Amino acid sequence: MKKQFAVIGLGRFGSSIVKELVDQGMQVLAVDINEDKVNEFAGIATHAAIADTTDENTLRSLGIRNFDHVIVAIGDNIQSSILTTLMLVEIGVSHITVKAQNDYHEKVLNKIGADKVVHPERDMGIRIAHNIVSKNVLDYLELSDEYSIVELQAGPQVHGKTLIELDVRAAYGCNVMAVKRGDDIHVSPAADEALYTGDVIIVIGADRDITRMELDLF
Ligand code: ADP
Fold it and tell me: Which domains does the chain have, with CATH numbers?
């Protein structure tokens, strides 16, 4: 059976989640307090409803408990976001993802029982900053405050060199998890594997070590 999603708040973030889930063939209920927003989504989402989700009875009447995953994408109104999340936790929704506006908001959401808190503006800022420092950084995934996974594009400076020659592990304390070459992907590459211009290298390590390696090698 198809998974059932509900997205609350149809601002920029919520709208793009709704559209992407629909594109992936999921069943999506789109909810907003604003009638115009809901009308806009009537033809896009599987269902669309006008509702103030800070009201427990309204939430229950949407049958929100039956959804596999609820995404709270209420932006600026932190109070509404927190209250909605609290109601969802109390009703017993199985999986709740919430967008946080700032670190304090994130802390409260974690405390009251959100399963996952996302911070899209901050995460995108980090990604873009890494991409500005080194244009060879293609993608960046923060694992914790200290550790990340980064996708780097190999340029002529590493062309033909093996991982042992580049000394990725000993000099930088980083591990190459995979090398993508065209459609091929080499998982856990051997130390004597050479890199070629255009390869995409997926590296895991501490942020400061990754940055050192980016600056020296890429
Ligand atoms: P973004 O930063 O992602 O664009 P916005 O703050 O612009 O987010 O949008 C958040 C949406 O959440 C708005 O469309 C707003 O009407 C909706 N919203 C705010 N409070 C509630 C609430 N209590 N119930 C339902 N939707 C709400």
Answer: 4-118 (3.40.50.720), 123-217 (3.30.70.1450)
